[in-house]
Each structure stands twice: as structure tokens, then as C-alpha cells.
Amino acid sequence: MLDADIVSDARRRVLRALACFPALAVLPAGSLAQALANPADALGILRADQVLNVADFEALARAKLPPAHFGYLATGIDDDRTVVLNHEAYSRLQIRSHRFVDVSKLDTSREVFGRHWQSPLYMSAVSGMRAFHPEGEVAVARAAASRNVQLMASSFASFAVEDIAAARQAPLWQQLYATDDWSVTQALVKRAQQAGCTAIALTVDVMPGRNTETLSRAMQRDTRDCTQCHINNTHDQVRKAPLYAGIDVSRVKEHAPTAISWDYLRRLRDIVSVKLIVKGIVTGEDAAMSLEHGADGVVVSNHGGRAEETLRSTIECLPEVVAAVGGKAPVFIDGGIRRGTDVFKALALGATGVGLGRPQGWGLAAFGEQGVAAVIDILDRELKIIMRQAGTPSLAAITNGAVVWAKY
Length: 408
Ligand SMILES: Cc1cc2nc3c(=O)[nH]c(=O)nc-3n(C[C@H](O)[C@H](O)[C@H](O)COP(=O)(O)O)c2cc1C
Fold this sequence. Notes:
By secondary structure, the protein is of the alpha/beta class. The chain has two domains: about 1-45, no CATH class; about 80-405, Aldolase class I (TIM Barrel, Alpha-Beta Barrel). It is about 40% helix and about 10% strand. It has helices at about 5-20, 30-35, 40, 55-65, 65-75, 80-90, 135-145, 160-170, 180-195, 215-220, 260-270, 285-290, 315-325, 340-350, 360-390; strands at about 95, 110, 115, 120-125, 150-155, 175, 200-205, 275-280, 295-300, 330-335, 355, 405. Strands 4-5-6-7-8-9-10-11 form an eight-stranded parallel beta barrel, surrounded by seven helices. The longest helix is centred in the C-terminal third of the chain and has 33 residues, at about 360-390. Flavin mononucleotide binds near residues 86, 125, 301, 334 and 336.
């Protein structure tokens, strides 16, 4: 790439960031050149702890990452409407605040699977995080360790589960894709359990053949030579991700087999000695079946709108899942969580814990470990603010009555 191309590419990327970063539009005259050089500097944002909210990290990440890598993080399916709705649906939930409640002490902790969680937040599985920062999942794990939040490692993480666990300094959850080779599943479960993982989270919401147009468009715009990093230009994660190293994957055709049935879950239950979570449930019927087939918990998730364009936000799916589970197991949720009030609303509708996907990547791309830690800090701070305002000093106090769906 010629220098001029690099400059114009950087310029294009920053202009795109400007378009979605309104604060930059009101920069004093003369500082546009500075903004084009580095939007974070131009805003006076030199450190992660200066970023005001989680969404602002997205603009910083967009400006920093090459188009294809940002596209990978951002993409949804078809028109990305489910991605948008996952977050927007929270705007239709209103909070019913109560007065005359002693909120001088706030407690955001709870027990999950017999372990103490200081915060209801957890880091959900995000694959290939080295695309966002050289330290990838290891930096995320360090941030999670510093803020003591649970981390679910992706099967397609760019670092080995043992390295991520060492950086987290506490047991991980291991996300699992069901391949069409049972011996691979067995080997993955064994490896994760040996690495000390206390839960296996089976992802069930992705079928082969996704229409990730935003990613495809970004790849078309990206003029770099992908083969520099993606050897043989392969994005075949099963043959690339460190979790599979040393495992014979020669017979694997699909990492998400189309022929999966409930029997698979029962079979998996028999080989998983730690907790078993099903990730990607959006209906009460499937939640009930998951428990019947041995799951210890479910995650209400649509893969952050990256699997199917259903137009059903996860927060709208949560109530029927919570009702079907009936308190027999924890119900987690992810998708579109960007504000402490979103966390509050999910808890009010019965979520045990609330997972973050893209915000990890944004924080990581913008400021590495510090960026991820700042994302957690912002959400924790915002959660505490709304807990105080709403008269709910503990997570147990955030009940169904704390929210109401807007009538409009
Ligand atoms: C770049 C990226 C990679 C992901 N990789 C995985 C994965 O390997 N396994 C998985 O179960 N979910 C994966 N997810 C989905 C997340 O775990 C989570 O369900 C979703 O991102 C939550 O929505 P949010 O991004 O709006 O927070 C990924 C999400 C993103 C954005």
C-alpha cells in the first residue's frame, strides 16, 4: 500500500467515525486535522477512563481497526436490524422508581452456580480477539480479573484456553460449538475441564450459511493482503483456533451441524462433569427442553444478531424463558447491553447475569486491557446510579415491578 493510500484510507476511516461520533462535529476550528490524525486525541481522550459511555468506544474502535476487522465485530445478518433492535428494545422498557428507600449502601453481588459474583456482568464468548488487539483474549482476561467478572472463552479464541485461564486467574466458562465429529467434542470438553473451566456453554443459535453482509462489504473495502496474517487466506476456525490444537479435526465438516437434535444435549450432559449451559435460547419451549435434557442454565441470546434476522430482541424473549425455567436454573442474557439501565432492566425481567459481546471488542481495540476494564467500570457505575435512583439497593430488590413496557 502506498503512503498516500494509507493516509486516504485512514482519512476515510476517521470520516466514518466522525459520522457516528457527534461530539467531533463541534470541534473548534483548526482541530479537524488533529481529529483526522487521531479522533481520540482530538477529543482530549488520552486514556480509557476518559471515555464517557460504552457506545463511544465503538466509534474509537471503528477509527482504529482496519475495515474488515471492524466489519467482523459489527456485522449482523441481512440488514443488521436484529443487532439494532437488541439494543433499541431496551428503550421501550421504562423504569418504575420508588422513593423513601434507604439506598445508602448498594450491593451488586450475587451467587451464581455457588460462586460469588461481585457484579451481574460477564464477558460473553467473542472469537478471534487478536483481530482487535495483539493481546486479544489475554488482555480481556486481565481486565476481567482486575474487575473480578466471569469470562466465557470462545471456542474460536485466538489464544489457548490455558493461557486465557492463567490471565483471568480464576475458572473460566468454555463456550463450545458442536462439531459433526463427536470425538472432537469429547476432546474439547476434556481439555476445557482440565483447564479448570467450571462450565461448558454449548452455542446452539448458529447454522451454516449466514448472510453477514456488513462483514462482506467491509472485506470488499479492505485493501490489505489478508494472507499476511490469515495463512492460506483461511478463516476456517476449527483448523486455526488454538483450542483445537492437537485434536484430530480432519473429519469435521461443520462447526454447527444442521442435524443436531435434543439427543445431542443429553449425550453432552453425560460427558460434562461441570455445569452445562445452553447458549442461544429464545423461546420458553426450548428453555424447558434444555433443562429436561440436562442443562444447568440457559443464555437468552441471538448471537448479538449475528445468526439470524428474526427482529426479536433478546430482552423481548427473556420473559417467556424466565417463566418456563420457573426459578429452577439461572437464566443469562446477552445482546445490546450498552447502558447500566439495560443491565437493570434485564435483571428486573429475571436475568441472573448479563453478558457483553461487542463492547469487549470496542474497549479492546481502543485501549487494550484498560479499554475493556473501562467498559466494565462504566456499566457498573451506571448500574449503581440507577439502583440508587430506583430505590433498589440490591440485585434481589430489582424485581419485575421495577419495569414496565412503554405503551407507545
Ligand atoms: C465478533 C464476535 C464474535 C463472537 N464469537 C462468538 C463465539 O465464538 N461463540 C459464541 O457463542 N458467541 C459468539 N459471539 C456472540 C456473543 O457471545 C454474544 O452472544 C453477543 O455478541 C452479544 O451481543 P452484543 O454484541 O450486542 O453484546 C460473538 C460476537 C461477536 C460480536
